[in-house]
Amino acid sequence: MEMGDSQNENGKGKGKVDTYQQWTMDDSNLLLGLLAEAMKNGLRDANGSLSKLNVENFILPQLNAKNRFPKTYSNYLSRMKWLKNQYDKIK
Q: What does the domain layout of the chain look like in residue ranges?
């Protein structure tokens, strides 16, 4: 590659590492179960949402313990957005 090229070897944008693994249906179902458990245990804030701290300390470790490809908070936010869109489609 010549200097000034804005793409790396895999054709993606500059600085991106191609390590993302898609969510499987099992991953999504596990996340939903963990979210339900977190709500049941009172981990939500006064406004009913989960804080980043609670997600990183309680949900992601359990999700990653059962998952070959670890998920980050950013992956969690992306999946939550997708789940919300799926829910909105059936309303």
A: 25-90
Confidence of residue 64 (pLDDT cuts 50, 70, 90): very high
| N-term to C-term CA, the chain | 49
Q: Are 85 and 37 in contact (CB under 8 A)?
A: no
Query: Do residues 26 and 18 lie in contact, with contact meaning Cβ atoms separated by under 8 Å?
Result: no
Residue 68 has which token pair?
């070959």
The H-assigned helical ranges of 1-91 are: 25-40, 52-54, 60-65, 73-90
Two tokens, residue 43: 């981990």
- Going by pLDDT thresholds of 50, 70 and 90, the confidence category of residue 69 is confident
What is the pTM (predicted TM-score) of this model? 0.74
